């Protein structure tokens, strides 16, 4: 089990755009199928785009991105959450369903009872429930991302039987999972 003093989990702040860029690029390089964006495309983005992206996630009242910091103050994990959009024919988001996105833990902080991913999920789900009023939390995982899929199951997510096409490869599928715990 993880020592609560080992990691601090909190929302990203506006001034942490460099740290966000660093861990996002690491995630894209480590798990190219996991994030719906190519590493090369993200790397080519100018600093101003990273600043704006971080500002939006830091200041939003509808979505949140959490980071796990190790004892040295380095971001070693991320997970975000936002309200699910209703089908195109309906208006606005469904306030009772939130989606977890961009889950990543740097390799040297994975497994072995470290609990970083669980801490990130705890924070994202608590925020979705407390701030957003979420009853249900969903996520989607690439069909070939077995490590992530196994973790999501251990955490309590279940496969819904639904799939989505993957934006970077329409021949691949994303498995939709649901958490009500």
Task: Give the SSE string.
Answer: EHHHEEEHEHEE
Oligomer category: single chain
Distance between the termini: 20 Å
Strand content bin:
25-35%
Describe the protein's architecture and organization:
Helix content is 31%, strand content 34%. With 181 residues, the protein is an alpha+beta fold. The chain has one domain: Aminopeptidase (3-Layer(aba) Sandwich). A hairpin with a 7-residue loop joins strand 3 and strand 4. The protein is globular, with a radius of gyration of 16 Å.
Overview features:
alpha+beta, 181 residues, 7 strands, Aminopeptidase, 7-stranded mixed sheet
Secondary structure: elements and pairs:
Blueprint: E1 8-11, H1 17-30, H2 39-43, H3 47-59, E2 64-69, E3 75-85, E4 93-105, H4 116-130, E5 136-142, H5 146-155, E6 158-166, E7 169-179
In short:
This protein has 181 residues and is of the alpha+beta class.
């Amino acid at each position: 089990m993880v020592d609560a003093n080992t990691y601090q989990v909190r929302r990203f702040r506006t001034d942490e755009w460099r740290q966000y860029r660093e861990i996002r690029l690491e995630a894209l390089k480590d798990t190219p199928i996991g994030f719906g964006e190519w590493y090369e495309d993200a790397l080519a983005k100018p600093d101003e785009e990273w600043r704006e992206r971080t500002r939006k996630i830091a200041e939003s009242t509808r979505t949140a991105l959490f980071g796990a910091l190790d004892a040295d103050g380095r971001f070693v994990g991320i997970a975000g959450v936002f309200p699910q959009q209703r089908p195109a024919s309906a208006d606005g988001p469904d306030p009772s369903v939130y989606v977890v996105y961009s889950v990543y833990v740097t390799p040297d902080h994975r497994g072995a009872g470290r609990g970083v991913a669980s801490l990130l999920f705890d924070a994202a789900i608590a925020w979705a429930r407390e701030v957003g009023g979420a009853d249900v939390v969903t996520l989607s995982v690439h069909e070939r991302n077995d490590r992530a899929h196994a973790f999501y199951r251990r955490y309590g997510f279940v496969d819904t039987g639904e799939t989505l096409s993957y934006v970077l490869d329409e021949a691949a599928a994303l498995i939709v999972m649901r958490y009500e715990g």
